[in-house]
Amino acid sequence: MGNLYGVIGCPISHSMSPDIHNLAFTTLNIDSYYKAFHIEPSQLAEAVEAMRLLEIKGYNVTIPHKVSIIPYLDELDVTAQIAGAVNTVVNVDGKLIGHNTDGNGYKRSLEEMLLKPLQDNKILIIGAGGAAGGIYYTLAHYGCRNIDITNRTLQTAEKLIEDCPYENNSTALSLLNAEAQLGHYDVVIQTTAVGLYPNINEQPISVKNAKGSAIISDIVYNPIKTAFLKEAEQLGLTIHNGVGMFVHQAAIAFELWTGQKPPLNEMAKVVHDKLG
Ligand code: ATR
What we know:
6-stranded parallel β-sheet; binds 2'-monophosphoadenosine-5'-diphosphate; Rossmann fold; 6-stranded mixed β-sheet; 10 helices; alpha/beta; 2 domains; 276 residues
């Protein structure tokens, strides 16, 4: 008999995770199904126990439960420890293990674009929230020593750097300074919610000072091309949108649950077809 998987979040009706996981199950002939579950914050503890009882083999966790679910799990994988948040739960014979596949998903996706080894790139991260932290610490874990952080609230960027568990030479910059000094960076990663649907005309900084060879990356995938990426494209820069991260984080979760590699290109195509 097949297994049941899912995603818990609130709101959840617009999640594209069921589309891409169910496509992967069908393509690989795996008799399993992935469903979106709307879980309010007040229902989280009950939901986790219910899913354990129902032997749901694995599920993704999204806003607003990524941090608050931690006390209800039995163990945290190092990826969840690094991020301080969980986006994937694996049920191993009733034992619930929290992982975070966002950072590694982003890294895998970015590496498809890079012209030189990851560690040789000078990187600027825009934003200092949960998403920025997960990416920053993952890249630092893999040996990136040249990552700076810019954020509207400078102290939050400083705190992120201070809390980094890896050796680093990171500097916190104001948005204004970052914009002026953008020419120093090989990769610029936009992690804030600025530009997220429906505020599709907003961007945190301009990329007009970026160097010609720079990769301009945005983790937002709805819209597929944010105002930030549109400006970069008009300037002739290489752009990298959030679809890659979304598909790769799902793929790593899928691999943890099934031990099999899902069809990445087909999954990305589903997202592009729906949102593009
Ligand atoms: P997430 O977990 O998705 O990263 P978060 O923890 O709420 O979300 O972080 C949001 C990030 O977007 C922060 O870096 C925030 O900047 P502040 O630390 O100054 O709040 C940034 N952000 C949100 N709205 C913004 C805006 N209008 N302009 C610039 N930055 C903004």
